[in-house]
């Protein structure tokens, strides 16, 4: 499982966020589907895989839990649209809301049904398992970007990201121009492949080069860059961002197939484009940048 419910806050936590939560409460996470306790694993930085959550042998998922169904749904969705006349048959983040991290919003524990859930209602409430699908609020852009990547044929799903243009996934998330530097008058969650060069760390800023930008004579003469201003961040948050780039890069290498189009490490970010240097985007919040491996 790539995310779970924080038992103490009721918030949905990405596995990657475990990289900077200290200490990680081994008993503090619940399944998004059925509310049983799940185990956080691989969250120490020496692990070269993404942190995630696993079922406890002593506390299996409820029979009606749709966690396994979500995996199968994604497999199908990468080939074709899974939306039917009854609506989208799964749960997805429909809104981004940045909250004070670790803020207590519920008493200790939450009901198994999940305090974060809101019914979709109406014609879009049907699912293949008989449960109503849910729309939920993300507190980082990562689950939004993962949904964009996993459901390429269902990007008309509703999405509300404050300050951005559009009301659907297809409108809010946009790939940068691959062959030129473009000024974007409207704000989006942007995406572009990560370059093979290492991040540069200088004067409180991380500079991440992307593989899109201005090309001349078949060379990338001026790449887009994401400049992460980590002023005021803890070392843990900075290291968490760096760890995700390295893990994504390793995932892309592992999944690469010679002679074929290979999955890439994609950088997603919500930042301010530099008016004087439009190849640069400034990001100041660790929750507004992520790196995921796959195909767009």
Please tell me about this protein's structure.
With about 300 residues, the protein is an alpha+beta fold. It folds into two domains: about 160 residues, no CATH class; about 120 residues, Beta Barrel (OB fold (Dihydrolipoamide Acetyltransferase, E2P)). About 15% of the residues lie in helices and about 30% in strands. It has four helices and 17 strands. The longest helix has 21 residues.
Tally of distinct domains: 2
Q: What integer is the average pLDDT?
A: 85
Distance between the termini: 21 Å
Main sheet: strands, sense, barrel:
5 strands, antiparallel
Low-pLDDT segments, ≥5 res: 103-133
Helix content: 10-25%
Strand-residue fraction? 25-35%
List the secondary-structure elements in sequence, H or E: EEEEEHEEEHHEEEEEHEEEE
- Principal-axes shape call: globular
Number of strands: 17
Structural class: alpha+beta
Cα-atom Rg, whole angstroms? 19 Å
Report the total helices: 4
Strand order of the largest sheet: 2-1-3-4-5
């Amino acid at each position: 499982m790539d995310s779970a419910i924080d038992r103490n806050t009721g918030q949905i936590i990405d596995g990657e966020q475990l990289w900077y939560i200290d200490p990680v409460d081994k008993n503090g996470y619940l399944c998004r589907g059925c509310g049983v306790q799940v185990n956080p694993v691989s969250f120490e930085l020496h692990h070269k895989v993404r942190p995630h959550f696993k079922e406890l042998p002593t506390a299996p998922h409820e029979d009606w839990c749709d966690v396994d169904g979500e995996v199968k749904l994604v497999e199908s969705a990468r080939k074709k649209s899974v939306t039917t006349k009854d609506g989208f048959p799964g749960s997805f983040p429909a809104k981004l809301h940045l909250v004070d991290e670790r803020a207590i919003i519920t008493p200790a524990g939450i009901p198994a049904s999940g305090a974060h859930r809101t019914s979709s209602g109406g014609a879009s409430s049907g699912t293949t398992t008989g449960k109503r699908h849910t729309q939920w609020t993300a507190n980082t852009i990562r689950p939004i970007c993962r949904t964009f990547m996993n459901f390429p044929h269902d990007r008309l799903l509703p999405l509300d990201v404050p300050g951005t243009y559009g009301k659907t996934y297809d409108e809010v998330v946009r790939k940068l121009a691959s062959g030129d530097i473009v000024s974007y008058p409207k704000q989006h969650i942007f995406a572009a492949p990560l370059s093979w060069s290492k991040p540069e760390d200088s004067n409180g800023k991380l500079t991440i080069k992307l593989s899109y930008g201005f090309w001349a004579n078949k060379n990338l003469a001026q790449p887009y860059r994401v400049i992460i201003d980590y002023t005021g961040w803890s070392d843990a948050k900075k290291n968490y961002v760096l760890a995700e780039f390295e893990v994504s890069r390793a995932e892309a290498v592992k999944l690469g197939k010679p002679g074929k189009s290979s999955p890439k490490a994609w950088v997603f970010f919500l930042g301010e484009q530099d008016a004087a240097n439009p190849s640069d985007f400034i990001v100041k919040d660790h929750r507004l940048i992520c790196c995921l491996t796959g195909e767009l």
